[in-house]
Amino acid sequence: xxxxxxxxxxxxxxxxxxxxxxxxxxxxxxxxxxxxxxxxxxxxxxxxxxxxxxxxxxxxxxxxxxxxxxxxxxxxxxxxxxxxxxxxxxxxxxxxxxxxxxxxxxxxxxxxxxxxxxxxxxxxxxxxxxxxxxxxxxxxxxxxxxxxxxxxxxxxxxxxxxxxxxxxxxxxxxxxxxxxxxxxxxxxxxxxxxxx
Length: 196
Hints:
By secondary structure, the protein is of the alpha/beta class. Helices cover 37% and strands 23% of the residues.
């Protein structure tokens, strides 16, 4: 699956919870698309992000982009950093779109309090709906590289396989965006994602 044509607008939604690096992932993706010569618009929407609430970023790129928001039913890709967030934002995905999901469960407060149940078999249920899903244990893969928080970059590596941007642009964006002491670890995490 490739979205790389100069006349097509590409819509990507990145969803997670506070602290998972959704904003950093959108900055890296935006940097790559701009370096490739596309017009890029981004938007962030924070719930109670400091308390583990939902954080979603919209990234749109193409020849000329006017609005930063991805409309429901128009996302070419949803990259979810947690299974419940994959379900929450699934209505934004195009019928032929791709859902990339980290197989991680972060229990929201209603589940912790016993007032709700966390959905079971999320990846299987979504796949059964006919959605094209690429699931990975990104947090565990990132931990193998030194820090579970690099799951966002592992997921970007998976995304990179579906976009025709040169690998050098991704690597440059990571070097430009993450803290210097974390560059090597994030580059390894990205490579691990590319190999999934």
